[in-house]
Amino acid sequence: MDSNKKLGLIGKNISYSFSKKFFEDKFQKLMLKNYSYDIFDLNDIQEAEKLFANPELLGFNVTIPYKEKIINYLDGLSDEAEKIGAVNCVLIRDGKKTGYNTDAFGFEKTLLLHKKAHHDKALILGNGGAAKAVKYVLDQLGIPSITISRKSEITFDTLNKETVQDHKIIIQCTPVGTFPNVEDCLEFPFDGLSAEHLIIDLIYNPNYTQFIIKAAEKGAKTVNGYYMLEQQAEKAWEIWNFQKK
To answer: Of 67, 97, 168, 221, which residue is the catalytic one?
Structure first.
């Protein structure tokens, strides 16, 4: 009999989880009876220490607000996680905890699926862990980007229509508008959008955020975060099971 293999998701106030259902469906499809996927809702990142003591823990995903804080608890980082400065997937092997960033993989797959030649400059809305992964991918692809946040050179209050017109890719990386707060929407000059714009909102619940609805009204091409989520989860599965020793 194989030993039990535990996986899970570390986060705070996780009221719903795509990951749990995704991986439980996968275990069922692959008939893996000894795998389980749990939600670890931590009030403080220090509580992660207790989790690591479990010898059956094979790895876990990391979500808001711990993608950066988890790094101090790890023994090593993959190249991309080190460059990004955020981790959303951890592999535990022989007692060693290694952090990866599969958000970058998922976002790149999403972007390349929808990007056209005129999508040559980007605005990144937000500066958390997901935004860092997005910036890393844009840099790798040679697409210049500007990050908009409360503390950046251009803030949400000072972002103008002209800057929006000039940047044909907009990636919404903040949690504003996520379930259950589905009526919330970022302050944004939607008038700067056109049919030439590609809008990627990393939120997947709801399917259509207020941000996507308002962008679509201006004729922009809109994409939510579902495909990215699926792709980053597949990549995590690969890391947990097929990462070379």
So the answer is: 67
